[in-house]
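Quick one, T. Sequence first:
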Amino acid sequence: MNSRQRVIAVLEHRLPDRVPLAELWIAPEVVRAILPESRGDGNELAEYLDLDMVTVHTMIYEEDEVEWVDRPRRIFRDKWGALQISPREGVPVPAKPARIETPADLAGYVPPDPAASPILGKLRRLAEKYPQGEKAICCVGESGWAPAVFLRGGLENLLMDFALRPAFVKDLMKIGTEYYGELYRLAAAAGAQMVLLGDDYSNKTGPMMSPRHFEELVLPSDAAVVAAAKQAGLYCIKHTDGDIRKIMDQLVGTGIDCLGPLEAVPGMELEKILERYPGRIAVMGNLSIDLLSRGTADDVIAETRRLLATVSRIGPHILSSGNTIAPGVKPGNFLAMIETAQQLGRYPIQC
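Structure tokens:
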């Protein structure tokens, strides 16, 4: 199998020739530590390490893709017209004041044009580079939740809206829902085979909103975006941090093909998820970021072997970290995870 066939086999809930390896995102610092001459692009490292997936991110911006408001403080306006604060490299975070505060703001809001997104050119270049399935090509994006967080200037404002003005939230969520529904159609035409939805809904103890609020205000957006992606011919992976057991049935019910990468927290063991939804879902993850950052290489090897033996063996499973390869991850630990999986991850798995 080539990489695209391998990943698709898992997303179709079949066992491939070996466990696919992928990461949602790899910090430029880690990339350069392993490839000193690199620009810090995670896709360069994916090729060097023979990972099975390359990614294009809708929520990470190049320096020339945003309107800088205060460059020394790294404050910019994103594609939504919302303020964000960016590290030198990596994922930005929302900033105040909110772009949309009132119903009048919402009524007058003009969303960005999906056809103008720079990710489409990036996807085309990857499709040209890997025409025979040498890598699976994944668009990492969102649904309605994350844009609503950005437009409201932060999570706390949006969660207050859940309680005080739910009708406003429903209208706000339509912005991202409609944008991404169209963007993923264009992404499929540009060469993507799959989309990974990165909206986070939970912390380590459970969802950040009540299950009732999730079902009423968030789930319709996810269902619509997943349906649009599937109609475009894309496979769909759903990431969220934290303990999602209270909303997992609803997420699986949207028609996603895979859950992950999932955080390594109690109750979210991947083998239990496979048992809970036999034949309905694949899983991705979930080697602890804390272990990759603070553990030893021997610790990482032992945990990788455990995941191979308890999750990959029964599959379908894409092995990855429990989130991303963050700046604090020890490069040697990341290499230990990859090398162990490549050595022992061929089916039938014997570790």
